[in-house]
């Protein structure tokens, strides 16, 4: 802004120029070089020019008043920090259901949340939207469970909690009704895992009872027959008692398998602490099963490296693991007449991994069954498994024992080329050997 003081100062600076030009004109007139009238014109033009240059600059035009932008309701920094820290997907909403803030987990689990958007852009579950609307109106928290098929089959639970972030009268100060919530907290919990575990438990109980009920029904039937019509039939009694014995053994095998499965699961988090040599254990298993191989007309061949392969292992569990694999190969791959068991090692000298594979040359396993093969009671052919005295729990036990030994189980079955089950377990390192 130009003050009178600044104006005077500028004129003071221009006056010497005017005086100098006036003196030059005087000399010009005295020397008859300049007409007096012409000198006056020069002086006037000079004064006018200087007056224009030293005039205060025009005041800048007034800035237009800022446009009225609708302000988004404010979220307290503490509130958004708390939402960000929540371990589950969480959003703060206005009572009208617009998104005020959302934590990072929302983007991962639900989708990208844009601040200011209505919740319906993000969540398209009418029950959740309705619950948010109702909670904002009556201040009562709500819980909604819902299932989704896309992008994946999953179950979620939404918790809707109305809040008074601006105090009890916050709503009134924002033009709403006092006493009503000014914000709504919406959180999600993934129930898929829980539901799956519940389903698996229910399936397991149903399968186990079914497996036990079948031999039990057969036993009861034969007992009735032996007490009734076949009471005096000696040959029938012999035959029936033989079948009853087989059914009783099947029940006891099933109970054994169930018990070992639950025992292994119970200790799953504890890696065994004793050192065992895995090649010796596999050799022992092959020896024990050689009579079965002979019975089935199968050549059981073991190839073992000379290198000792010490691992941290539970001897009984490892015997059970390799017995299951070799027995399966002898039972289901008998038509190939050959089963090869190989014990070797791979990896660097100070980080060896024992690799044990059991290969048969039977019909193999169709690829669609491979992913479910280690599930409890899962069989490719139920009748064939029962005929072989199988319980459907063998590979589930194998999987759990391998996991407890921090190992890996691989199953390969190229069509028409038998099946290969490979177990990899890390060996005890030199440092561990010295430490122990
Ligand atoms: N080597 C194999 N060749 C073909 N099928 C196999 C082989 N090993 C396992 N299977 C299939 O996997 C199923 C599950 O095996 P397992 O869990 O050991 O149960 P079980 O032997 O008691 O039936 C078997 O019923 C069989 O159908
Ligand atoms: Mg088996």
SSE blueprint and pairings:
Elements (H helix, E strand, L loop, with lengths): L3 H27 L5 H18 L23 H9 L4 E4 L5 E4 L1 H6 L16 H13 L3 E7 L5 E10 L6 H4 L9 E8 L1 H36 L6 H33 L8 E3 H19 L2 E6 L5 E3 L2 H18 L5 E9 L6 E8 L21 H6 L6 H11 L3 E5 L6 E8 L3 H6 L1
Parallel strand pairs: 7-9
Antiparallel strand pairs: 1-2, 1-5, 3-4, 4-5, 6-8, 9-10, 10-12, 11-12
This protein binds adenosine-5'-diphosphate and magnesium ion.
Magnesium ion binds next to helix 10.
For the record, what CATH class of the largest domain applies?
Alpha Beta
Number of strands: 12
Major sheet: order of its strands?
Answer: 2-1-5-4-3
Percentage of β-strand residues: 15-25%
Radius of gyration: 45 Å
**Cα separation of the termini:** 88 Å
| CATH structural fold name of the largest domain | Heat Shock Protein 90
Structure description:
With 436 residues, the chain is of the alpha+beta class. The chain folds into four domains: 4-53, no CATH class; 77-190, Beta-Lactamase; 196-266, Helix Hairpins (Orthogonal Bundle); 275-435, Heat Shock Protein 90, CATH 3.30.565. 47% of the residues lie in helices and 17% in strands. It has a five-stranded antiparallel sheet, sandwiched between helices. Strands 7-9-10-12-11 form a five-stranded mixed sheet. Strand 1 and strand 2 form a beta hairpin. The chain is elongated, with a radius of gyration of 45 Å. The structure holds adenosine-5'-diphosphate and magnesium ion. Adenosine-5'-diphosphate (ADP) binds next to helix 10 and helix 12.
């Amino acid at each position: 802004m130009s003050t009178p003081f600044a104006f005077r100062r500028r004129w003071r600076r221009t006056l010497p120029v005017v005086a100098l030009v006036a003196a030059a004109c005087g000399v010009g007139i005295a020397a008859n070089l300049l007409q007096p009238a012409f000198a006056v014109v020069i002086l006037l033009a000079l004064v006018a020019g200087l007056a224009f240059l030293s005039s205060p600059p025009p005041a800048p035009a007034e800035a237009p008043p800022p446009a009225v932008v609708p302000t988004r309701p404010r979220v307290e920094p503490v509130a958004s920090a708390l939402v960000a820290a929540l371990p589950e997907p969480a959003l703060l909403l206005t009572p009208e259901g617009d998104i005020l803030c959302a934590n990072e987990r929302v983007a991962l689990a639900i989708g990208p949340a844009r601040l200011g958007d209505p919740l319906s852009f993000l969540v398209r579950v009418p029950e959740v939207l309705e619950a948010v609307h109702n909670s904002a109106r009556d201040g009562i928290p709500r819980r909604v469970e819902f299932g989704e098929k896309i992008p994946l089959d999953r179950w979620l639970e939404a918790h809707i909690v109305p809040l008074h972030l601006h105090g009890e009268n916050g709503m009134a100060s924002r033009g709403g009704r006092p006493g009503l919530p000014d914000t709504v907290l919406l959180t999600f919990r993934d129930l898929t895992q829980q539901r799956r575990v519940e389903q698996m438990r229910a399936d397991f109980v149903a399968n186990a009872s079914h497996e036990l009920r079948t031999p039990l029904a057969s036993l009861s039937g034969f007992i009735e027959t032996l007490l009734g019509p076949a009471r005096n039939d000696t040959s029938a009694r012999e035959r029936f008692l033989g079948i009853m014995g087989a059914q009783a053994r099947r029940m006891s095998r099933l109970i054994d398998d169930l018990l070992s499965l639950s025992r292994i699961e119970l200790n799953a988090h504890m890696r065994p602490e004793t050192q065992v040599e895995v090649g010796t254990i596999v050799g022992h298993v092959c020896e024990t099963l050689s009579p079965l191989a002979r019975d089935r007309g199968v050549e059981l061949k073991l190839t073992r490296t000379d290198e000792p392969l010490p691992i941290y292992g539970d001897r009984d569990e490892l015997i059970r693991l390799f017995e299951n694999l070799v027995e399966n190969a002898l039972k289901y791959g008998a038509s190939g007449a050959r089963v090869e068991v190989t014990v070797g090692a791979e990896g660097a000298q100070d980080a060896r991994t024992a690799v044990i594979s059991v290969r048969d040359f039977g019909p193999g396993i169709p690829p669609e069954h491979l992913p479910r093969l280690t599930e409890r009671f899962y069989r490719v052919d139920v009748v064939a498994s029962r005929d072989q005295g199988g319980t459907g729990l063998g590979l589930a036990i194998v999987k759990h024992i391998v996991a407890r030994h921090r190992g890996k189980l691989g199953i390969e079955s190229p069509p028409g080329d038998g099946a290969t089950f490979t177990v990899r377990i890390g060996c005890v390192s030199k440092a561990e050997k010295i430490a122990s």
